[in-house]
């Protein structure tokens, strides 16, 4: 049976809906282009119903009743909810971008950039290694239950920042700027084996070219870098799993930081 909300709480329900929808539009797997938009809307609508019912017994609902009912106030409240939802989803997107960048670096070092393929989740052209890592990260995100932690964070975030109580502060904007380093650190930790080994291989080929000028370095180097890259790919896959999981789980920290920065009085 569907829960019945008082008329004055319908505004609260839609504020919750807009924040959840904004997060889902950027959260891994849920934001993929292969997931139809009606499915995203339906999931956000269902989660908003459950969340509104959950919050009715907490202090977040009385605070949300102070939301202005005039048109201008509602527009600002909805904009604040969308901003917070986009911020929460963006921090997870940064982790996926770090994994994607690591795969692109590996593909470039192996010489596979000419064999780019379409990434089904984003619709963009990436290297084959990058596409594999993004799909591998999506599988880890679902199989390990990490998505449940983020869904729990979405619901628990309303206890910290009630509907219509979002404050766009300098702290929330500063937390977005700090995420730039996350891309670099995550990409290096995942792509380090390719960067180190293939760099040494190319340096060795350069020395061989100077020692034996008659040798065709490109003829020897191209299959060598691909073979080494595939070997590193097979050997480092268990370590890549740990690095990808740590990168995704590490995004929980800025995820909660974005919520705390938008709280009143932060």
Low-confidence stretches: none
Strand order in the sheet with the most strands: 1-2
Order of helices and strands: HHHHEEHHHHHHH
List the domain count as a whole number: 1
Question: What is the strand content?
Answer: under 5%
Integer average pLDDT: 77
Structural class, please?
Answer: mainly alpha
Give the strand tally: 2
How far apart lie the N and C ends? Answer: 39 Å
How would a textbook summarize the main sheet?
2 strands, antiparallel
Q: Oligomeric status of the shown chains? A: single chain
Helix content: over 70%
Tally the helices: what do you get?
11
Q: Judging from the principal axes of the Cα atoms, what is the shape?
A: elongated
**Rg for CA atoms:** 23 Å
Description:
This protein has 266 residues and is mainly alpha-helical. The protein has one domain (7-261). 73% of the residues lie in helices and 2% in strands. It has 11 helices and 2 strands. It has helices at 10-24, 37-55, 60-64, 71-110, 128-143, 146-160, 170-178, 180-211, 217-235, 237-250, 252-261; strands spanning 117-118, 125-126. Strands 1-2 form a two-stranded antiparallel ribbon. It is elongated and about 85 Å long. The mean pLDDT is 77.
């Amino acid at each position: 049976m569907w829960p019945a909300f008082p008329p004055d709480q319908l505004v609260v329900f839609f504020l919750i809906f807009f924040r959840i929808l904004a997060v889902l539009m950027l959260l891994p797997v849920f934001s993929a282009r292969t997931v139809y938009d009606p499915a995203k809307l339906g999931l956000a609508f269902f989660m908003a119903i459950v969340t509104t019912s959950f919050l009715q017994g907490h202090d977040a609902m009385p605070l949300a009743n102070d939301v202005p009912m005039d048109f201008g106030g509602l527009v600002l409240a909805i904009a604040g909810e969308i901003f917070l939802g986009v911020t929460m989803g963006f921090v997870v997107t940064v982790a996926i971008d770090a994994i994607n960048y690591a795969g692109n670096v590996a593909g470039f070092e192996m010489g596979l950039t000419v064999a780019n393929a379409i990434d089904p989740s984003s619709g963009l052209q990436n290297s084959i290694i990058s596409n594999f890592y993004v799909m591998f990260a999506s599988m880890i995100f679902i199989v390990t239950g990490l998505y449940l932690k983020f869904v729990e964070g979405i619901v628990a975030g309303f206890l910290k920042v009630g509907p219509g109580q979002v404050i766009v502060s300098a702290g929330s904007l500063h937390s977005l700027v700090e995420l730039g380093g996350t891309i670099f650190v995550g990409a290096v930790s995942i792509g380090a084996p390719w960067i180190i080994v293939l760099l040494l291989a190319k340096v060795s080929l350069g020395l061989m070219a100077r020692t034996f000028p008659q040798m065709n370095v490109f003829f020897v180097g191209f299959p060598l870098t691909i073979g080494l890259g595939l070997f590193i790919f097979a050997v480092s896959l268990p370590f890549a799993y740990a690095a990808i999981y740590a990168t995704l789980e590490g995004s929980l920290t800025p995820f909660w930081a974005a919520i705390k920065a938008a709280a009143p009085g932060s």
